[in-house]
Design brief:
Layout: H1 2-13, E1 20-21, E2 28-29, H2 44-48, E3 51-52, H3 68-80, H4 82-86, E4 90-94, H5 98-106, E5 111-116, E6 125-126, E7 139-144, H6 154-164, E8 165-172, E9 177-178, H7 193-200, H8 213-218, E10 222-224, H9 229-232, H10 238-241, E11 251-254
Parallel strand pairs: 4-5, 4-7, 5-6, 7-8
Antiparallel strand pairs: 1-2, 3-9, 8-11, 10-11
């Protein structure tokens, strides 16, 4: 990855940008970098169960390091006008990504709390999603981008997210899921990193959602506002912008 970044940055300095573009940094680039070897290095379950998550072949921007998940969120939020809703809002963001955090801050929220169970940045507060230490109806927006698949009790986490949202408040809950499984697959006996990678596709995942993922995520009392890439971004070529066009935008609203 370091060698690829160095090569692409040298080419960019020579003005030899290619046909791809990163919406986070605005740079034209030759191509996006694969994630840890791309599909060739992915566990077999990823292809066999058609797990929809990151675009492993076009994952990282070689210029700024933004992931495909950040780029996709940036584009969904901009096209749907969510950046305007962020202005003056109270926002709680779990496992905050650097580039999408900059996008949120640029929207001008009244309060922006970045949270993580095990924070590495002093600007990130230690917060357990299963027991959020904030009052009922505290936030206008909660963001959890590829987080719920890591949480031991996702039902408790969803209850907490619903609790701290204001009526009409929104939750962005991006989560990988299988296009083959009918229902969520989770087994407490799958406990080691090797077992989790074999069963769920990643060593730190504790479940794999199925085709009923929208019902699962809405079960705490949220209203689904889920939409597809083709619905919202039909003019944005997935290869040019380095996106997984099969990944929906999982947006939910707390009942008023």
């Amino acid at each position: 990855q370091r060698a690829w970044r160095a090569l692409w940055r040298r080419l960019e300095r020579l003005g030899l940008g290619g046909g791809c573009k990163c919406v986070c940094c605005g740079q034209s680039i030759f191509r996006f970098l694969p994630y840890a070897g791309g599909w060739a290095a992915a566990p077999q379950v990823v292809s066999q169960l058609q797990i929809i998550g990151s675009d492993m072949q076009h994952y990282e921007c070689p210029s700024c390091g933004a992931s495909d998940r950040e780029r996709h969120l940036h584009m969904f939020c901009t096209r749907l006008g969510l950046d305007r809703k962020m202005a003056g809002a109270r926002i709680l963001h779990f496992a905050p990504e650097a580039h999408f955090s900059a996008f949120v801050l640029g929207a001008g929220p009244s309060e922006y709390i970045r949270a993580d169970l095990c924070p590495r940045d002093p600007g990130v507060k230690q917060v357990d999603m299963q027991a959020i230490p904030y009052a009922d109806m505290s936030f206008d927006l909660v963001i959890a981008n590829h987080v719920l698949e890591h949480v031991a009790d996702d039902k408790a986490a969803l209850d907490e997210i619903c609790r701290v949202l204001k009526p009409g408040g929104l939750a962005i809950l991006q989560t990988p899921f299988s296009a083959v499984l009918e229902h969520v697959f989770e087994d407490k006996g799958i406990a080691t990193e090797e077992q989790r990678e074999f069963a769920y596709g990643q060593s730190d995942h504790v479940r794999l959602y199925g085709r009923d993922i929208v019902d699962q995520l809405a079960s705490a009392g949220l209203i689904s506002r889920v939409c597809s890439h083709d619905e919202v971004l039909p003019d944005m070529d997935v290869r040019r912008y380095g996106l997984n066009g099969k990944e929906p935008f999982f947006l939910f609203e707390r009942r008023r």
